[in-house]
Each structure stands twice: as C-alpha cells, then as structure tokens.
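Why should sequence recovery work at all? Because a backbone constrains its sequence more than one might expect. Tight turns favour small or flexible residues, buried strands favour hydrophobic ones, and helices have their own preferences. The token representation captures these environments compactly. In the example below, the structure is given first.
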C-alpha cells in the first residue's frame, strides 16, 4: 500500500513538472499525521504540494482552495476494500487577487462527498466571470453536485461517480461566464446541463439522466440508460457511436426526428449531426454480485453485448472502453451502502 501511494505521488508530481512537499491529514487522534484538518494543511502548503487525506468516519467539512494543490483521499486506491473513505462536504475553487493566488491546476482524487438534503454543490467555483479557474482534474471521486458559478476552462472529469448533476453555468445570452473546454471521460453520471460555450467533450460515459441546455458538444461512445427521452435543448452537437436504451432521444416538439441523435433542432437554429449511433438497444450489462458499485451492476458489458465493438473505431462503449477504463474496484468501501439510491435517476 505504501509503495502504491509513493508511486502515485511521484507520478502526479512528475506530471506537473514540479517538486513539492507532502503532507498527511487525519481527523482521528490515534492516526499519525501532519495536520488534523485539510484547511490547516492547505494554509501551510505551497503551490503544487500534495495533501493525502486519511479515511475517517468523520466528515472533514468544507474546503477553501485558493492555490494549485494535489488533494488525494483514501478512496483512490484499488487496494482499499476495508475501512473508511475520506469525506468532504464541499470544495470551493476560488482566487485571492490581493494575495495573487488561484486554484487553477489543482488535482482532486479519491474523495467521497456525502449527500445532505438541500445541500449546495460539492464542487463550486468562485462566482466571478472575470476570474477563470483553469485546468482542474477531478478523478475517482463520489460526487453529488458540481456547479460552475463563474468562469472555468480546461477541467477534466475522469472515472468519477456523479450522482446528481454538473451545471456548466452558461445559459444563452451575452454573458461570458461558464464552463469551456471541459472533458468528461469514463464517468458514471446522472445529468449535465448549462454548457453553452461550444466546447465540451463527453466520451465513454454511462449517462443515467438527461443532457439539458447544451450547445456545441462532442459525444462519443456513451451509453444512455434512461428509458425515456434524454436530450432537452441540446443542439449544434455531434454524436458519434453512442447507444441509447430509449427509442426516443428528444422531445418531438423540438427535434425533427426524435428517434435519431442526428436530427434538426426545431426550437432554435442548428442541428445535431454524427453517425453510427444506436437507439432502442439494450447494452446488456452483467450482474456482479461481489463487486457491487451500483446495486448489482458496475455497467460492465456482457460477453454478447453489441457495445463491445460498436464504439468509434471498433472500441468498446461505456466506462470500460477508451483510454481511461473505469477502475471497477477503486470505489469499494463498506461505509458506502447505496451509492445510487433509486430516486437519483429522477433528478432533472
């Protein structure tokens, strides 16, 4: 385990082309550590330092991030099948113009963000369109809600379970706030909405809910599991090699052919284009009784599934295809009883 942590640490630091300090955080009195709170470690750390957060039954609370840091929680490792996750309520990505600090370039790996009724987003950016938070990586986390409240560019979401929605913050109009250049790769997610900057790549995801108010996206090798329509105000986007359980992709009132991904959008100017998409097709997920992430399935395709070769260039559709296959064992933890309650698919 220690060798695994050291290896990941060295890989992360080498990818940033910098060297930095390494701190351990735990809110448990019997655990050896450098700090008892994440915020204390952040205040002490310099840019591009690494903070490893030990698992705990207690939540670490809210985190204010004003500088580029690597935060690694207990849940990132495939070796961890026992014990607790590292739980955070919320991370606010922000900037301090007086201290000339900004959280651009941060990496967040391996945290659980528990659900609280009526809660705000788990990850949120500063609500200022003149301050752009750039090049943040969000990987192998359990999330509920993400909201871009100001401007953000070049974020990567990879191998996460996102149980609620991600709001890109950009609606139609003249304001320039919102998300641009976002990449969504190999995530299990519910809904995406309010991406209107013509720059979002959505690749090899399992999408349980809807895409709403999205313009200019590229979608490749995704599997849409909703049994009803799942596109709402999505246009000027390109769909290649996606699979949908539903025969209807969008509302009849807005799509010239609601049974096709490639269809003229009647409620605004523009059309969705693409090729080799499938609708009304069951992906054929297998049941894994011992590796239970999602109530009996981790969305692995059965041996005879059409999704094995129906992806772009003959690649596999869904979270186990592409360049970043989903680490199926990385999220196993006895503290998480039901990561996707049944009501989640009804959100948006």
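From this structural description, the recovered sequence reads:
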């Amino acid at each position: 385990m220690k060798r695994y942590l050291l290896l990941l640490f060295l890989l992360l630091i080498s990818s940033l082309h910098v060297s930095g300090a390494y701190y351990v955080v735990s809110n448990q009195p019997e655990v050896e550590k450098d700090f008892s709170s994440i915020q204390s470690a952040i205040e002490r750390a310099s840019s591009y330092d690494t903070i490893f957060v030990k698992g705990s039954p207690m939540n670490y609370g809210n985190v204010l991030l004003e500088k580029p840091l690597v935060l690694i929680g207990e849940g990132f490792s495939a070796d961890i099948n026992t014990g607790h996750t590292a739980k955070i309520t919320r991370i606010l990505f922000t900037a301090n113009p007086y201290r000339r600090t900004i959280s651009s370039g941060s990496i967040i790996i391996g945290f659980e963000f528990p659900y609280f009724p009526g809660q705000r987003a788990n990850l949120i950016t500063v609500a200022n369109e003149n301050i752009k938070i750039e090049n943040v990586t969000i990987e192998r986390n359990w999330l509920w809600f993400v909201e871009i409240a100001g401007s953000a560019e070049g974020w990567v979401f990879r191998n996460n379970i996102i149980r609620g929605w991600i709001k890109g913050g950009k609606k139609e109009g003249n304001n320039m706030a919102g998300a641009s250049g976002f990449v969504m790769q190999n995530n299990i997610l519910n809904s995406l909405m309010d991406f209107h900057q013509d720059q979002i790549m959505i690749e090899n995801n399992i999408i349980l809910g809807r895409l709403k108010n999205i313009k200019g996206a590229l979608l490749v090798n995704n599997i849409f599991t909703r049994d009803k329509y799942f596109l709402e105000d999505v246009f000027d986007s390109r769909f290649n090699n996606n699979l949908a359980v539903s025969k209807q992709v969008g509302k009849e009132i807005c799509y010239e052919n609601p049974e096709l991904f490639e269809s003229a959008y009647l409620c605004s100017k523009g059309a969705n284009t693409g090729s080799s998409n499938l609708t009304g097709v069951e992906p054929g997920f297998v049941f894994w009784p011992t590796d239970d992430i999602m109530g009996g399935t981790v969305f692995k395709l059965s041996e005879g599934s059409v999704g094995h070769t129906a992806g772009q260039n003959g690649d596999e559709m869904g979270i186990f295809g592409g360049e970043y296959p989903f680490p199926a064992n990385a999220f196993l933890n006895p503290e998480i009883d039901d990561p996707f309650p049944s009501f989640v698919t009804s959100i948006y």
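A few observations help interpret the result. Helices lie at 2-16, 38-44.
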